[in-house]
Amino acid sequence: MTERKIPFTSLAPGEDAHDIRAAIERVFSSGWFVLGPEVQAFEREFAAASRVSHAVGVGNGTDAIALILKALDIGEGDEVITTPLTAGYTVLAILMAGARPVFADIDPERLTIDPDAVGAAVTPRTKAIVPVHLYGQPADMDAIAKVAARHNLAVIEDCCQAHLATAHDRPVGTIGAAGAFSFYPTKNLGALGDGGAVVTNDRPLADRIARLRNGGQRDRYHHQEPGINSRLDEMQAAILRVRLTHLAGWTNRRRALAATYRGALAGAPVIVPPPLDPGHVYHLFVVKAASRGGPERRDALQRHLEAHGIETLVHYPVSMTRQAAFAFTHPADCPRAVKACDEVLSLPLHTGLSEADLSTVAEHVHTFEDRA
């Protein structure tokens, strides 16, 4: 009998399909497609859901980070500390702002940036820290905030994988100066295209970001300062409004599936990172296939699961410190991040999966040791 294929994710609209079609038709009929009433309504609704005063819709999560930095006057000649275990777009956003990214190694259990490493990386040029709430796991924000206060640094939270996450019961995006979100289709709150938002409790900062996203215009054709073109469109905002009403339920489902995985993988030949904060929203469920000196064991596990119809991905296979695009920054060595990149494997986790699907995945992970 052929085994049922278990996809890594499912992006087609499901229970929300009817309402999404209605939202698209509403925008189509309105004739207003950029920075209109749908964006304004979504900004209000997303701010409320994120428990923050202001949300500003932008083109994508990368722009969200870059716009926050620019609005804080962080740029040329400044250094911004971030994690080497992230998507490259975190680092690209720092470069877009004109600043130099500086990498601080990770906590090997949490897999987010290590606050002690952040403190050691501070120089007189350091102006900000960009912690990433990786895989939906909040970074250790209490410790990071203490480092930032000691050195008078801004904290910009990369929340692109952490919609509705909390760090010690505090909503991500509200702990630093501002938070950046992505609505790329694979995210927990995903659009049917690109989109992003900045959240903050600082009204002047929100106003400046709203101006900067629209060419620096204070009103039409009057450019108060140089800005960029990074506007959330009406169609995506309308779709996100529909999906936002489902997000709390989807988040609870992800947490339940993650708990099932944890139980089912007990004793399996992988390391399951511990749940260090109940505010984790499980954008990804990542395990580590411990290796010595390279990714061979992880890659063998991935091939083993693929042979049984189970799709997996690696987030992320190369540390930012070893990316050719960032070599000119002469990054410090971050050995814990390099080791994690050799070990991590993302198992399927999305709301379309059943408990039986997870049991199947776990069963084949358990059998891997005999085939390694």
Order of helices and strands: HHEHEHEHEHEEEEEHEEHEHHEHH
| Low-confidence runs of at least 5 consecutive residues | none
Helix content estimate = 25-40%
Backbone CA Rg: 21 Å
Kindly report the average pLDDT value: 96
The backbone outline, from C-alpha atoms, is globular
Number of helical elements: 12
Number-wise, the strands total 13
Largest sheet: 7 strands, mixed
Distance between the termini: 24 Å
Strand order of the largest sheet: 1-9-8-5-4-2-3
In terms of DSSP E residues, the strand content is 5-15%
Secondary-structure-based class equals alpha/beta
Would you give an account of this structure?
- This protein has 372 residues and is an alpha/beta fold.
- It is 38% helix and 13% strand.
- The chain has twelve helices and 13 strands.
- A seven-stranded mixed β-sheet has the order 1-9-8-5-4-2-3, sandwiched between helices.
- α4 (88-96) links the parallel β2 and β3 (100-103).
- α5 (115-121) packs parallel to α6.
- The longest helix is centred in the last third of the chain and has 31 residues, at 234-264.
- The protein starts with 16 loop residues before the first helix and ends with a helix.
- The model has no long low-confidence stretch (mean pLDDT 96).
